[in-house]
Write a structure and sequence with these properties.
By secondary structure, the protein is an all-alpha fold. Helices cover about 75% and strands about 0% of the residues. The longest helix is centred in the middle third of the chain and has 41 residues. It is globular, with a radius of gyration of 21 Å.
């Protein structure tokens, strides 16, 4: 059995499923749901007719350009996961159907259902791939059959569980905005820097509202924090690659000296409750935006998209100057200042030394 699994490149491991597959799922979501949301926001804000008008009607439902992109989130996630698991072509292409089924039957918690079911279907598909002379029939039949069966069997309960956990976190944040502001900001922010996908976690748990705002704060604190405190070593290239790329670039340095992580993490513990208690910042855009931070400025854009949606629905009267002040302070200014001050103190006591954050 071990030899067979090795031959088929089936690795049952936390890294393969919890890091590679989860990270790929976030990329699939980014290239479908998030891009679709951005396109819709651009169309609405700049009154671009082509982006606002339906371009297709399927099953009685009208779709805009952005709407079509968002509707493909299930297939996009499943194919991305299968690609990360190094599936052969027939398995990879079959995952389009599997992703659609898992996301549709998973309901609001579809992303988490897609993650589990895409992994199961991919590994079964890899196991039978090229094992028969009629591979072109057997591999798609097994992959799709297993995927659709498990979508019917476990996607609804997984989706409901994900939605319940997300609702619990958001309820707790509304009830205790200070404490939960700290916890959500720190935990999601650290997940962003670790080699796992904070974006996929937020998407799977449907993290929006004040909890989403706290998550945005934590992610921005990690990215902007590391970008500014490592400027001495990494200059402009490091500022850009970490500030609008990813703080994950510091993971190797964190392993060598975990104390370099203190400044951005403490900054997130401060900006999180400021976001929830002072500015009452909510992220009501696509849930994946909650875990993106300043990566391509997706986190702040998600907050802005939420404002636009709330104004359109009547939940919010208007976008105010106080809203913009909070967004700029939470996402850019405070993370930079707080991280610099805290890191300066750490350098004074010898916990952090020049060169510790060179990438």
């Amino acid at each position: 059995m071990k030899d067979f699994l090795k031959k088929k490149d089936i690795q049952i491991s936390l890294k393969r499923y919890g890091i590679d597959a989860l990270g790929a799922m976030a990329q699939g979501l980014f290239c479908s749901l998030l891009i679709g949301t951005i396109i819709n926001t651009i169309g609405t804000q700049f009154h671009i007719g082509f982006l606002m008008q339906p371009v297709a009607t399927v099953g009685g439902i009208d779709y805009t350009v952005g709407g079509m992109a968002s509707a493909m989130s299930g297939p996009a996630m499943a194919v991305a996961i299968a690609y990360a698991l190094k599936c052969p072509p027939l398995v990879l292409f079959s995952m389009i159907t599997v992703g659609f089924a898992a996301n549709a039957l998973g309901g609001a918690g579809g992303p988490l259902a897609v993650l589990f079911i895409a992994i199961i279907a991919s590994e079964f598909g890899k196991a039978v791939s090229k094992e028969t002379k009629i591979d072109i029939l057997v591999t798609p039949l097994v992959t799709i059959g297993i995927g659709v069966f498990f979508s019917w069997l476990i996607a609804p309960p997984i989706g409901k569980a994900a939605m319940s956990i997300g609702n619990l976190i958001m309820w707790a944040t509304d009830l205790q905005p200070f404490l939960m502001g700290i916890l959500v900001s720190v935990i999601v922010g650290m997940a962003l820097t670790l080699p796992i996908s904070s974006a996929a976690i937020c998407a799977a748990l449907l993290l929006t509202g004040k909890a989403g705002g706290a998550a945005v704060a934590g992610c921005c604190a990690q990215m902007i924090g590391f970008a500014v405190i490592s400027y001495r070593e990494n200059k402009v290239g490091g500022l850009v690659s970490q500030g609008i790329g990813t703080s994950m670039l510091q993971m190797g340095n964190i392993v060598k000296n975990p104390r370099i992580w203190i400044a951005p993490t403490l900054a997130s513990a401060i900006t999180g409750p400021i976001a929830t208690c002072v500015f009452k910042m909510e992220m009501n855009g696509a849930p994946i935006s909650s875990g993106m931070g300043t990566c391509g400025f997706v986190g702040p854009l998600g907050v802005y998209t939420g404002w636009v949606n709330d104004v359109a629905s009547g939940a919010k009267a208007a976008i105010t100057g106080f809203d913009w002040l909070g967004l700029i302070l939470i996402c850019l200014v405070l993370p930079a200042i707080l991280s610099l001050v805290i890191n300066h103190f750490l350098e004074k006591i010898g916990w952090v030394k020049p060169g510790d954050m060179k990438i």
